[in-house]
Amino acid sequence: MAKSKLVTANEKIAEKVIGGYKKVGEGVVGGYKKVEQSVVGGYKKIEDAFVDQYLTHEGETVEEAKARLNAEQEALRAGDQKQ
């Protein structure tokens, strides 16, 4: 049975609406990801600067200081759980 012109036109409209919806969704998600990356990147820069300025020991890199601080924090948590 042949489709009527109305059904064919309706299907074309539906395809265009769905395509537009997907493009808008991709744009929103892409924009969100860019903002998220910028915020996280900025935070990490500030965090690294703070650790470098205030928490590193003599000759210690930022990564080494972070690892040491994480180990100390885990040791404190383990000690709290035993009590």
β content, as a range? under 5%
Q: What is the ordering of alpha helices and beta strands?
A: HH
| Structural shape | elongated
Kindly state the percentage of residues in helix: over 70%
Low-confidence stretches: none
Q: What is the SS-derived class?
A: mainly alpha
Number of helices: 2
Number of strands: 0
What average pLDDT do the residues reach?
A: 93
What is the makeup of the main sheet? none
Between the first and last Cα atoms, what is the distance in angstroms?
78 Å
Radius of gyration: 27 Å
Description:
By secondary structure, the chain is mostly helical. It is built from two helices and no strands. It has a domain of 50 residues.
Write a compact overview of the structure shown.
87% of the residues lie in helices and 0% in strands. The chain has two helices and no strands. The longest helix is centred in the middle third of the chain and has 51 residues, at 5-55.
